[in-house]
Design goal:
Layout: H1 9-15, E1 20-23, E2 26-29, E3 48-52, E4 55-77, E5 83-88, E6 95-96, E7 101-106, H2 108-172, H3 179-239, E8 242-244, E9 249-254, E10 261-262, E11 276-291, E12 303-307, E13 316-323, E14 333-341, E15 352-369, E16 374-375, E17 380-386, E18 389-400, E19 404-409, E20 417-420, E21 432-435
Parallel strand pairs: 3-21
Antiparallel strand pairs: 1-2, 3-20, 4-11, 4-15, 5-7, 5-10, 6-9, 7-8, 9-11, 11-14, 12-13, 12-15, 13-14, 15-19, 16-17, 17-18, 18-19
Amino acid sequence: MRRTWVGFGAAVAGVGLAAFTFAGGAPVPDARAAGDAPGGAAPVAAPHVEVTRPERVTISRPLSLPGTLRPFREAALYARVAGYCREISVDRGSRVTEGQVLAVLDVPEVEASLAAAEAKLAEARAAVERAVAERTKTEAEGERAAAAVMAAEAEASLRALLAERTTAARAKAPDMVSQDQTDEARGRDEVARAKLSEARAAAKVCTAALAAAEAARGAAEASVRTAAAMRDRAKADCNFATLGAPFAGLVTERFVHPGGLIPLASSSPKNATPIVHLVDDATLRLEFFVPEPEVTNLAVGRRVRFTVKELPGREFTATVARLAGALSERSRTMAVEGDVENPKRELAAGMFASVLLDLEPHENVLTVPAGALLVEKRATSVFVVADGVVKKIKVKMGVDDGDRVEILEGLAADATVVVAGASMVKDGDRVVAVPKGGAR
């Protein structure tokens, strides 16, 4: 049924107001102005419709996915040593800097172990000093033994030479050298040889003693290293009594109070109680899952948009930093993480996000507002206005981003397209075309 606007009536006729249409950018008189009414009857005003020109823009296929904001880093901080909580300087919601002291424990057993290790180290160092002194003494004795050997060798050489000469002299002149002189020379030679053997044996003893002293010193020094390692470990355990922040961030949970017993966190901390839970929210991770057909459209470095319902009207951006690289067999999606700078702490870890991906951008394509389309069962059409008359033409759609739609075929670039009021007209109607956003 044809829809018209009935109005204006006598007022329009009385002042001789002519209706105009918008065609090709120039107003033309409306065929249904007051002078054209049959028999002088009151005119029926042509409906007003909003029109616009198609625009060439870059348009993308939108994809909205759910996502979650997570901390860039987070840690549940446990005690490395058992003790009692002496003090804790933070609570839930506290902002901390890297290295800031969060809690201090009393660890009497560890302190006793440190004292015992210090005593062991002192004892080992004293043993080293004794071993060094003993080695020095033995080394001096070895030097004396070596000197004694040299003296004995010289004496033995001299006595051997004298015995040889005495024996030779008696053989030549028995009347000049007695047998007693020869025997005495030989006896002194044998005594000198015996003393040389004794000196050499003493030198060997000194050499063995020096080796033993050197080994004793090495063992004492090894004991020092062992004791020092035990001392350092005990000192490190004492240092663990002071819990510092591994990174700057926000304390989200506090689990202990002063005076409470804090057990040692073993390799499996299921039964241990953390002291605090810390998150780094200066940068957040935007985690979302991309369906298999869209995986190839994402790459590290790409920027994506997202919104959170807690901040309506605001749009944020993230930079894709990590892709899982494999699909989940159960959901056929790939996990993707984007880094979100959060210097003002407007966003909170745990927020639900709506991720907006612009896929397959089409550049410099002809588009019309989405509201201009008439989507029917068999075809998609638009109304255009030419010379004040509405004409319905079929078009072929391309990408639809929800705001504008790409037109592939059927529409001229200079056409005047109806964007509002199409429900009041049909093909062939005369209308008053008003530019979009203009006054009626």
